[in-house]
């Protein structure tokens, strides 16, 4: 019975310290967060310090139990910032191994064309939505420039992919027409203009 009562007493004494333990062990706690905590308590706190344990941190000169609410705020911010950083890394990693399929040849033109790019288009649309939400997050902090840069890259790729597909669609429509000698004779000026564009398009797709 004495052991049970002693254990119960120790648990009751430890209960208020649980939020401190959770905060200190929160994933995403970085140097800047430890610096915030150090400024708050007036003494340097770091996971690298020799006496980084709950007993020491709850004694002078730290007395972290007096700053439990602040610790929870800092650790919560750290977790959200880490979540953003991890999400950004996941989006960037998702592009590894992806490439455009230009192995298909259009009719008898001896020119390759862009094949099915639905997976890439879908990934672009999905990541643009996610990135826009990250841009509006109050926890983007130091990642703001990287998020904006990533959003710009996605938009740049989306715009160029749209232009590429529009150009290819027009070329696929016009190429068989101007490939006809009769059409070339009837519309010589248009045929010359198309030939210039056709030459540029073919050289680009063969590059």
List the main descriptive attributes of the protein structure presented here:
single chain, 207 residues, mainly alpha, two-stranded antiparallel sheet, 2 strands, rod-shaped
Can you walk through the features of this model?
With 207 residues, the chain is mainly alpha-helical. Helices cover 67% and strands 2% of the residues. It is rod-shaped, with a radius of gyration of 31 Å.
Lateral strand order in the biggest sheet: 1-2
Radius of gyration: 31 Å
Structural class: mainly alpha
User: Which sequence of SSEs, written as H and E, runs from N to C?
Assistant: HHHHHEEHHHH
Instruction: Work out the number of β strands.
Output: 2
Strand content: under 5%
Distance between the termini: 83 Å
Overall pLDDT metric: 92
Shape: rod-shaped
Low-confidence stretches: none
Task: Work out the helicity level.
Answer: 55-70%
Characterize the biggest β-sheet.
2 strands, antiparallel
Please outline what is shown here.
The chain is mostly helical. It has nine helices and two strands; from the N terminus they run H-H-H-H-H-E-E-H-H-H-H.
Structural topology:
Layout: H1 2-14, H2 18-24, H3 31-41, H4 54-57, H5 68-93, E1 104-105, E2 112-113, H6 118-135, H7 144-178, H8 181-186, H9 188-206
Antiparallel strand pairs: 1-2
Helix pairs in contact: 2-5, 3-5, 6-7, 7-9
């Amino acid at each position: 019975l004495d052991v049970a009562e002693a254990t119960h007493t120790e648990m009751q004494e430890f209960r208020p310290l649980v939020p401190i333990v959770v905060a200190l062990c929160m994933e995403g706690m970085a140097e800047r967060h430890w610096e915030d905590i150090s400024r708050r308590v007036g003494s340097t706190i770091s996971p690298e310090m020799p006496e980084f344990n709950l007993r020491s941190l709850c004694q002078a000169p730290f007395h972290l139990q007096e700053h439990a609410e602040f610790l929870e705020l800092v650790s919560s911010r750290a977790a959200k910032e880490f979540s953003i950083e991890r999400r950004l890394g996941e989006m960037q990693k998702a592009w590894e191994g992806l490439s455009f399929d230009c192995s298909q040849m259009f009719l008898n033109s001896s020119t390759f064309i862009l094949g099915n790019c639905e997976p890439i288009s879908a990934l672009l649309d999905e990541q643009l939505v996610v990135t826009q939400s990250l841009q509006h997050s109050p926890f983007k902090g130091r990642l703001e420039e990287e998020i904006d840069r990533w959003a710009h890259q996605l938009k740049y790729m989306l715009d160029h992919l749209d232009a590429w597909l529009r150009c290819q669609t027009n070329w696929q429509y016009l190429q068989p027409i101007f490939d006809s000698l009769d059409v070339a004779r009837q519309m010589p000026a248009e045929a010359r203009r198309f030939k210039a564009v056709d030459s540029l398009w073919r050289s680009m797709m063969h590059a």
